[in-house]
Amino acid sequence: MTDDLVLRRQVCFALYAASRALTDVYRPILDEHGLTYPQYLVLLVLWERGDAATVSELGNRLRLDSGTLSPLLKRLESAGLLVRARSARDERRVEVSLTEQGRALRERMDEVPRRVARATGLAEAELVALRDTLTRVTETIHRQKEQ
Hints:
Number of helices: 7
Low-confidence stretches: none
Shape: globular
Helix content: 55-70%
Strand content: 5-15%
Distance between the termini: 35 Å
CATH architecture of the largest domain: Orthogonal Bundle
Order of helices and strands: HHEHHEEHHH
CATH topology of the largest domain: Arc Repressor Mutant, subunit A
Largest sheet: 3 strands, antiparallel
Mean pLDDT: 95
Structural class: mainly alpha
Radius of gyration: 18 Å
Number of domains: 2
Number of strands: 3
């Protein structure tokens, strides 16, 4: 007989503990650049897009609500990394664009993924498989919630 109510058997705890451990790895690396982890995620989306994104697009992509995202964007704007402006096509939408300083920061952040990967002790193929599995779990759970 197995006891499923043992902490070490809980997937949720393994994910929680791994998430905290990874955040602890990111913190000092991002501190060197004056960023928090959520700010880094916003910048990743904007760097990937290469152009403006609306606040709602950022929220959807990062799975963050506007109450969490708005103060984050405000701090990034105060740091000179992005600007927010009402859309010329639709005043109800706010577009977020990188500044020159925000675009330039990308080059200095190149080492972040490699440093984090080294800290995990996993091979590249293992990290890719882990990421893909976690993405699949997240997408499956969100799809089920929407049904």
